[in-house]
Amino acid sequence: MWFCRFCRCSLRSRGMIVTENLAERSRGIVYTREQLIALCKPLLRPRDRPVVPKELWRRRRGCRSGAKRRGKRRRHKPAIPAIIVGNVRSLGNKTDEITALVRTQKDYRECSIFCFTETWLHSLIPDSSVEVPGFSLVRGDRDLSKSRKKKGGGVALYVSERWCNPGHVNVKEQICSPDIELLAVGMRPYYLPREFTSAILIAVYIPPSADAAVACDIISATAAKLQTKNPDAFMVITGDFNHASLDKTLHNFQQYVDCPTRENKMLDLLYANAKDAYSATALPPLGRSDHILVRMTPKYVPLVSRQPVHIRTVRRWTQEAAEALQDCFGSTDWDVLCGPHGEDQIL
User: What is the mean pLDDT of residues 146-160?
Assistant: First the structure.
């Protein structure tokens, strides 16, 4: 006897008889086995997905909008570089932590430049011991003969190879003195807005015992020199300023760090020569450093995106217009136009 798959009742009681006997077919509706199986819903496991033919796939048209969505699509080609800046207090024992952060966290993986001060690096530490995969290293170690200090100091930049080719990264200026340690690096990334020809980052470290006025004068002179050679370059000045400030020295630069970087003091600053360029986000410190890291997220809108839309009307040359012009040529008396008239003479 056949039973229903859903309620397990007899098919005879529901008027459905599956049989090949012609005498029993006259008692009700007859279904074959294949028809009954076709009436059942397919049983899928929780992780199974039905196989949909490619011609039945849903076609998504257009694209999602929004600043975050646009930034996600161009995460390795931002209009201006995304920068993480901070005082790390020795870099040699924190390279593994930086590598792990780059591999696991998006804020570090999609960053264009790492700017670290107080690296404590010297000539006996090779580049291979402080390298981060996917980033090119530019070091500005402290010169003991010029700084008059035995240990500490130093600045370093990690430039993402996805953002800029390592062959297009070059050192513009390097200064080491008792009042300041400065490293200026010029970069030509894969993408820049049309209003910028290149990007220049000046990393500085001003010791607590330095003369703030002398340090600010050195920074302003270096920035003026680089701007004279590269007038359309996007320039960033960042690092550990301690008790110094450039607010009264460089009036065409704007400071973007708005959160305390050590206890309740704002020591790590970032200046840029573009308005509305960055927004600051505080990140945990590296290891046991007493300074937190600050991620500068680009929010600069290129000039071409800020310009209003211009609507222009273009007249199309149609076949009717061509025929009308041909009729005008055919009805024109060219002898009158080409021949002399009155006192006019053909030269």
Answer: 90
Q: Among positive and negative, which fits the CA dihedral 66, 75, 88, 142?
A: negative
- Quote the CA–CA distance of 180 and 62 in Å, as a whole number: 52
Single pTM value for the model: 0.72
From residue 116, alpha-carbon distances to 98, 141, 291, 318 in Å are: 11, 12, 11, 65
Residues 244 and 295 in one domain: yes
Average pLDDT, rounded, for the chain: 85
How far apart (Å, rounded) are the C-alpha atoms in residues 64 and 48? Answer: 29
Give residue 102's domain range.
69-305
Q: How many residues does the chain have?
A: 347
Separation between Cα atoms, residue 136 and residue 113, nearest integer Å: 10
Task: Starting at the earlier edge strand, list the strands of the sheet with 199-205.
Answer: 169-176, 181-187, 199-205, 234-240, 268-272, 254-255
Beta-carbon contacts of residue 116 (< 8 Å; ≥ 6 apart):
85, 86, 87, 88, 91, 155, 156, 157, 158
3-state class (DSSP) for residue 224:
helix
**Distances in whole angstroms, Cα of residue 177 to Cα of each of 138, 144, 214:** 19, 9, 10
Based on the fold, state whether residues 33 and 147 are members of the same structural domain: no
Q: CATH number for the domain including 260?
A: 3.60.10.10
- pLDDT confidence of residue 13: 46
Q: What is the pLDDT of residue 68?
A: 61
Task: Verify that 73 and 160 share a domain, yes or no.
Answer: yes
Establish if 310 belongs to a structural domain.
no
User: What pLDDT, on the 0 to 100 scale, is given for residue 266?
Assistant: 95
Q: How far is CA 300 from CA 9, 193, 254, 276, 277, in A?
A: 71, 10, 13, 6, 4
